[in-house]
Specification:
five-stranded antiparallel β-sheet; about 15% helix; about 30% strand; four-stranded antiparallel β-sheet; 2 domains; alpha+beta
Length: about 150
């Protein structure tokens, strides 16, 4: 039985890039470009086998808040990637499971938060307050058992 081919990646600019054709890397923003051969190549069976903690930026104003209030800050344009590659869940699944998404709204040109039902638990409200949001008491769930 033939072993599946491992994928090749390099870590550059605080991100994992896929190596293609042994001399190029693929980036979503710029397409293909030449590989920096000075960087070590990492092999993995799957893109999800890599350490994606590089996406996290604790002091970022954007990111995810877990139901326990834990903050997973990231760059504004990497919220979906944090969900997919670091938290290993689709954004919709996180939202359905009570996670809060803090993002930049291109509609209102401000930072906003979203949680299914727009009601947060007290721990999430505390994190939102720490991140500079004003929370009205009607947006805080009184009884955490009703989540």
């Amino acid at each position: 039985m033939k072993k599946p081919n491992k994928m090749k990646f390099i870590f550059e600019d605080n991100y994992w890039w896929e190596v293609v054709d042994d001399d190029k890397i693929y980036t979503k923003q710029k397409g293909y470009r030449n590989l920096n051969k000075k960087l070590p190549i990492t092999e993995a069976s799957d893109i999800y086998d890599l350490d994606w903690s590089c996406l996290l930026h604790r002091n970022s104003p954007y990111g995810w808040i877990a139901p326990d209030g834990t903050w997973f800050g990231c760059r504004e344009n990497q919220i979906d990637e944090v969900a997919d590659k670091f938290l290993l869940q689709d954004e919709t699944i996180l939202e359905l499971n009570g996670w809060v998404k803090v993002y930049f709204s291109w509609f209102s040109h401000t930072r906003e938060w979203y949680r299914k039902g727009m009601i947060v638990n007290p721990k999430q409200a505390e994190t939102l307050l720490e991140k500079g949001f004003n929370i009205h008491f009607s947006e805080i769930q009184e009884d955490e058992k009703n989540e």
